[in-house]
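Sanity check

After download, print the first record. It should look like this:
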Amino acid sequence: MSGKKKSVSLVLGAGGARGLAHIGVIEELVARKFRIRAIAGCSMGALVGGIYALGKLPAYRDWVTGLGQTDILGLLDWSMSKGGLIQGDRLIGKLRQLVGERNIEELPLDFTAVAVDIQREQEVWISEGSLFDAIRASIAIPAVFTPHHYRGRTLVDGGLLNPVPVAPTRRNFTDLTIVVDVNARSRSRSPTAGGGARFPPGLIHRVRGALGNVTGSRRDDSRMAGMAMWDVLTRSLDTMQAALTRQHLAVYQPDLVVSIPRNLCMAHEFYRAGEVIEVGRQTARQVLDDWRRQ
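Expected structure tokens:
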């Protein structure tokens, strides 16, 4: 590897709480003096990438690693009438309070958040305007978060069509394109995390109740069926995104791929932030070490 500092176009994929691994990857790149010149992100990739572009990633990391299960529940504003279980306004408001707000065109690097226009069935690249409007649109997981209405469009999670948005970075001239795929093939044991599909008790009751309200049933067995429906939804999204990721990586062939196994944690397990971030760091370290030896 040349001694010159390498410039990087960074692609941060969708994957719920697994997307916290992006923090560890970014911190490893920065520690090794790579120059991140462009970021394209989808869902949690858009959130982490946008906050990094703001220069506020340390503040976000410290906050998210301090969250417990009860804290996470407190960030959820439930809604059963707007196309999703969670409105998302409370979470976005907290993030704005934590790290501030800027327009994307004012950021010091090229940033694109990817969403999907659900009415026009089109992928949408958001590279100007309010950063947190872009993030809110990109994280709008169908049926979980309500769609985000922005500039006359109804937008949902970009992972629906493109969980690893390499294409937006092609307009940038950088030395390397690095993709962080958080929907990679499952491992028998994750590097440091415990794995299993553990649902916080409070979340179980909230989701069961919400789905029970949708079906109009109050029987315990109906609530258990509702919980199974929730599990099917999240696993179906993971499966779809993994398949789309393989297709996009085959087409665009980035220089490096940091692969985070999709069984590292469940999409909702944000209370495991510390260990997920560390897996991202360790995995990036191994990939970069292997690349340097080539």
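If your output differs, re-run the checksum step. Summary of this record's structure: Residues 190-205, 207-227 have pLDDT under 50 and may be disordered.
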